[in-house]
Amino acid sequence: MAENPEKRPTFQELMLRLQSFWGERGCVLQPPFDLEVGAGTMAPETFLRVLGAEPYKVAYLQPSRRPADGRYGENPNRLYKHLQLQVILKPPPEDIQEMYLGSLRAMGIDLTQHDIKFEEDNWEAPTLGAWGIGWQVMLDGLEITQFTYFQQCGGLDLNPISVELTYGLERIAAFLEDVDSIYDIVWTRDPVTGKVMSYRDVRLAEELELSVYNFEMADIDKTWQHFGLCEAECQALLEGYDRLHDNKELSPVEKKRFPLLAAYELCLKCSHLFNVLDARGAISVTERVGVMGRVRALAVGIARAWVDQRTSAPLPEEDAGMVVVANA
Amino acid sequence: MPEFLLEIGTEEIPARMIASAQEELERRLRELLARERLTAARPRGFSTPRRLAVLVSGIPLAQADVSERLTGPAVSVAFRDGQPTAAAHAFAKKAGVEVTKLDRVATPKGEYLSAQITRKGRPACDVIAKSLAKEIASIYWPKSMYWQKPSERFVRPVRWLVAMLDDEVVPFEVGGVRSGNRSRGHRILSPGEVLIPRAGAPYVDALSQACVLDREEREQRIRNALAERATTIPGARWCEDLALLETVVNLTEWPSVIVGSFDGEFLRLPEEILITVMRDHQKYFALRGSEGKLLPHFLAVLNTDGDPQGLIRHGNERVLRARFNDARFFWESDQKHSLRERLPWLKNVTFQKDLGNYYEKTMRVQRLCSWASEIIREAGVEVRPGVVHKAACLAKTDLTTELVKEFTELEGIVGGLYASVQTLDRGMPAATQQLIAEVIYDQYKPKSADDSVPRSMEGAVLSICDKADTIAGMFALGLAPTGSKDPFALRRQANAIVKTIAEHKLPLSLLRLLELARETYRGSAAEQRFNADLSYAEAVQAFFRERFEFYLGEQLGVAYDVVKAVVAAGCDDVSDAVSRAKAVGEVRGSPDFDSISVAFKRIKNILRQARETGKQVAAGVDPAAFREPEEKQLGQQIPLIAALVNSLRQSREYAGALAEISRIRPAVDLFFDRVMVMVEDERLRANRLALLETLLKEFSTIADFSEIVIEGKS
């Protein structure tokens, strides 16, 4: 609950404030990654960028889809798709915690009137071969951010490491607006008419329909087929890269233009399709571990290849490429 | 004498790691100073989530000078034709004196050069500065990280260092941070740096308005505030919870306490759920009324100095409401499917990757429970096999409920609660159903050494069989715990089995239980993955022997030698071995048993020597071969007393049996006084050895008395 109701940001203002806060601190502001992901971490702006030696700072909103968490729009606290603000700082500045607290002030939270605790919470994503050390940040007893010092990603030790901040925006907004249901959050208020668009108005139908799809109607056979196709294509690409790698006479250009990013997108599709099958109850226990292992194998393979691609001989026109990143 | 201060400023250290880290830092400083001959007062440690600190007073300015004598080369080598050689010059240089000033000492090997030298003590500041980084890096953390160089690890990033001898900075560096004289206080209440004027009391004073440095002081403040806040609710008292208290002490730098409330409607949910949400998820203290009933209020410990506008209370109440709503939603939606309906769903819950799913486990445990109930009943203990069977059938079904998925620490408890509110079988008497519910509820007990065992005999059987199934499967796979590796907590589960059998006095052989448990895997897919080379029985016996020793020694406080003595006579029957240990503990130290213990040690030695030197022991004692009256007397008494001892042992009257054993003492003492065992006459010797062997065998069935340590001797 913000102190002055006038200053309480709407959901939309919250998104804008956090993004400008991090933009002003040198982060590249990216649009949300345009494929289904279970968490902001899975977007290539985190998963791939934290690998290798180049510094990077980025912030992006990321709708995160977790089919099994869907509740047909009936549960006031749980969603199939929730919105994260994801920040990656590589390497993290020394005053990273103070900077983070600054972002809470930017949301309109007067920290002298609230209780902030950093409680141990280490994060792990086995399917990404990623883990880190950190905290859940508690504001008046509410977990508002996951704060992680990444240690490994794609099964690789990181150097330098990155800090990942993941803000759960619905929770924060419900707190700021002091509402008991996410659906009551004010998404935006028309400045002219004062008409309110609530979270319910904007998203309820989506929660309901996708819960129905994921739990009841997703075609199991076809979803498995999609999974198999994406996996096979991803594997084929990885094998193609391995062949390039073994061929010593090849020009570095061949390696640089190899579409590992496309392979990663295929891997993400597999991950999401797996989640749909899981929600649909189509994966037995015995299969489950195995299928997760398959997705992990793709992710880890891509991470290794990607690092290799970054560290092989640079192209002459590298400066114009995507690798070099403005570091404010 | 100077005072020393070290403060390691970090980002928030996990609460569970702070107390032991503070102790370790104190110990490291103490040992460092002792090692470096800087004798000082005992270090005093401080800690908050963001710092570990140590103050030491009375540090000498420098190490004392040390005078020592160096021995150099032999004179014959050091001088040739009366002139010093290179060896002499080198030694003189090392000793820091001229060649002509070197002494000569006579040794058994001849005359050697020698010199008395004085090593200057180094200044304390230099010595400490050189060692601190290494000491800090060596602190043990259950989980550590790196944030700059992969080689530099700590629990969380180090952000500042204060190291001072009086007002002088002791220079060193950790993780790119240089030591100085600037500390920090509470993040929000005391922003910015705090200048530390000097080590000692001024350090504490400088931070006194910035944070509460001392852990004990924080604990006291929190205790007082909890008690004081509780008085604002009529008739309420806070539920003391030491583990939770330690957590909040280590989560705060400036604690205060608020009282919050929740809708009384939630009190309809089982207390276990409400408490779990409050304690484990929100770190709140529950409040109880005068009759012990839970009240719709809670106490939250804040890391700030108060909540004048009530915003923090409001926020915490909001979070708790959402959590309780979730719990209620799960509680209600879980009722749509009875535990019975959920049984086949267990086929989709993995127990262990090689041991199959929980449905298969349920089937095995049910069978094991039937066998175990039967054995117990045949031994005359009252147990209701039908109740155990039914409870075993439903025991794991709560793993499929939303409530357990959300609150995993409530597994078993939720099953018990659901079993008590659902219809298990039409026409089942209410008391039977409540007993079944209780058995399910208690199935994971005892969860730790301090936890109580299941309340009923039926609960004890299920708890034991469930754990025996896990241990049997893991051992058969060859996944027994090794060293510090015990990922499936098999030791804890075995401890639980031992404690439950002992406290319920179950007439159950451990080996039999584990063999039956192994038997339930016969023909399963899991069995094909079992390790065939393994000696299963030996492995589980050795494992349980250790667990039993742990139980006797650590939990019952039985003396170590008694534990060894009793276990040497077997511990497969746990409750029997416990009775023997108690009886032996009673007579330990009495003159009769001290004497018997000495005699038995001697007998063991004699028999060992006889074995080692190839001396024959007769196959049986031949009374006709006795020569001396003392051996005749001993020979006559052994069978008489042994018969009495054995009959008392059969009826488990160990105090009586031991009293009988003590009656053999005079005969044994006389025998050793007057009779020589290792005589030349082969036949006589063999017969005497046989007599001793019989004595040892007949009187070691309760305990191996030779293991008993006599006070004053080792």
Give an account of the 3D structure.
The complex is a heterodimer of chains A (328) and B (714). Chain A has helices at 11-24, 44-47, 96-106, 169-177, 199-217, 220-246, 252-256, 260-279, 285-311, and strands spanning 28-30, 56-65, 81-90, 116-120, 123-125, 130-139, 142-153, 156-157, 163-168, 186-189, 196-198. Residues 318-328 of chain A have low confidence and may be disordered. Chain A has 9 helices and 11 strands. Chain A folds into 2 domains: 5-215, Bira Bifunctional Protein, Domain 2 (BirA Bifunctional Protein, domain 2); 218-320, Class II aaRS and biotin synthetases, domain 2 (Methane Monooxygenase Hydroxylase, Chain G, domain 1), CATH 1.20.58. Chain A has 328 residues and is an alpha+beta fold. In chain A, the strands form 2 sheets. In chain A, strands 1, 2, 3, 4, 5, 6, 7, 8 and 9 form a 9-stranded mixed sheet that branches. Chain A has a two-stranded antiparallel ribbon with strand order 10-11. Chain B has 714 residues and is an alpha+beta fold. Chain B folds into 5 domains: 4-62 and 123-207, no CATH class; 66-119, no CATH class; 215-334, no CATH class; 356-403 and 425-557, Hypothetical protein af1432; 585-707, Isoleucyl-tRNA Synthetase, Domain 1 (Orthogonal Bundle). Helix content of chain B is 48%, strand content 14%. Chain B has 26 helices and 22 strands. In chain B, strands 1, 2, 3, 11, 12, 13 and 14 form a 7-stranded mixed sheet that branches. In chain B, strands 17-19-20-18 form a 4-stranded antiparallel sheet, with helices on both faces. A 3-stranded antiparallel sheet of chain B has the order 4-8-7. Chain B is flat. The model of chain B has no long low-confidence stretch (mean pLDDT 92).
